[in-house]
Amino acid sequence: MKLNLKTKIYLSALTILSIGLYVYIFKNYRVEDMTLFVFWTILSIAVESLLIPMPNNAVGVSVGYAINVAAVIVGGPLLAATVTSLGVLFRFPKIEGRGYVHLFNLQPHKTLFNVAQSVLVSGIMGLVYLNLGGQINEFSLFPTLAIVVVGVLANTFFISAFLGLSTRTSITNTWMGNIRGTFISTIAVGTIGIIIALAFLSYGYGAVILFFGPLLLARYSFKLYIDMRNLYISTIEALNKAVEAKDSYTSGHANRVEELAVGLAKAYHLSFDSIENIRTAAILHDIGKIGIKDEILNKAGKLTKEEYETIMKHPSIGADIIGKVNFLQDVTKIVRHHHEKYDGTGYPDGLKGEEIPIEASILMIADSYDAMTTDRPYRKALTKEMAIEELRKYSGTQFDPRLVDVFINMINKMV
Question: 247-413 has which CATH code?
Answer without folding.
Answer: 1.10.3210.10
